[in-house]
Amino acid sequence: MKSLFFLVLTLAPAASWAQSQQCTLQSANLNGAYMITITGTAGSPVWAPFTGPVATLGRYVFDGLGNLQITTATIAAANPPLNVTPPIVVNGTYSLNRDCTGTLTLNFAPAPNAHYNVIASPDGRQLTMISTDRGDVLVATGTRLDHN
Question: CA nearest 90: which of 105, 113, 106?
């Protein structure tokens, strides 16, 4: 009986915390301009013909409805050498679940699209992404740029 009581006392706060740490607005949790950096190794068709180390810095604007636009980006790749600076515009889509996990797609038509799994903070101020495209080992972090 003591074990059950201890288990209930231990798990109850954790369950309460998990419920309070949800993205109740789902996709609307990501809304506004974010500074996002991506680093890692490119190897998927998304990056062809560039392979190897890559780093990007961009301004992503999320509309709270599942659409996003990269309005500026700087991209550096090592093999073959590449240094792209603004202006660049890329459109995409995203969806966020109640548990703050989701997906993001960058549309590079006619080239292949880039795909990421996303985790956002419940207040929408921070996000972390990881590429799901085979051959890429890319991680991204983002911070909302407003002053609220």
Answer: 106
